[in-house]
Amino acid sequence: GHTMRVDVIEIKSKTYTKYALSCVGWGLAGAVGLQADKLRWVPGQKQARYDIAGAVTMLSDWPIVCRGQLSYPVTEAGPDGAKSTVWKSKNVGCINLIASNVPLLGNDHPIC
Fold first, then answer.
1. Integer Cα distance of 18 and 104 in angstroms
2. Rounded to two decimals, what is the model's pTM?
3. Three-state SS for 28?
4. Residue environment code for 36-70, b if the CB has 16+ CB neighbours within 10 A, otherwise e
5. In Å, what is the CA distance from 19 to each residue of 8, 30, 33, 69?
6. Could you count the other beta carbons within 10 Å of the beta carbon of residue 19?
7. Which residues contact 32 (CB under 8 A, 6 or more apart)?
8. What distance in Å separates the CA atoms of residue 45 and residue 13, rounded to the nearest whole number?
9. Distance CA 73, CA 92 (A)
10. Rounded to the nearest 5°, which phi and psi values hold at 11?
């Protein structure tokens, strides 16, 4: 065993806690991901299933507004100039949110 530290995204609800290592889709992105997972059986689906799932989701479920609390670290300088990291939280309502801890996903697809 070789071990290493990794950044992890934590998702909490009232009934469960889940963790992700690279990307989390919430709102429209999450709905499209769930729909795309159902299309794995389609021949040649590797690239097209997300496009198909996006169209189906937008036509049937639009708009999707998800509400939650977003927490994120902020580095602040104290009165003595020493820096410390504190966690801030905001209540949010959004149609789409993608959170990632890596700059590229899949075959070098940038997160933007």
1. 22
2. 0.50
3. helix
4. beeeeeeeeeeeebbeebbebbeeeeeebebebee
5. 6, 14, 16, 16
6. 9
7. 25, 50, 53, 54, 57
8. 32
9. 16
10. -120, 120
**Model confidence at 110, in pLDDT bands (50, 70, 90)?**
low
Q: Which tokens belong to 50?
A: 């997300």
Separate counts of helices (H) and strands (E) for the chain: 2, 8
Cis peptide preceding 63, ω within 30 of 0: yes
Q: Are 76 and 84 in contact (CB under 8 A)?
A: yes
Per-residue pLDDT reduced to its tens digit, 78-99: 889 899 998 899 988 877 777 7
> In this structure, are residues 25 and 36 in contact, taking their beta carbons and an 8 Å threshold?
no
Q: How far apart are CA 61 and CA 64, in angstroms?
A: 6
Angle at 72 between CA 16 and CA 36, to 5 degrees: 55
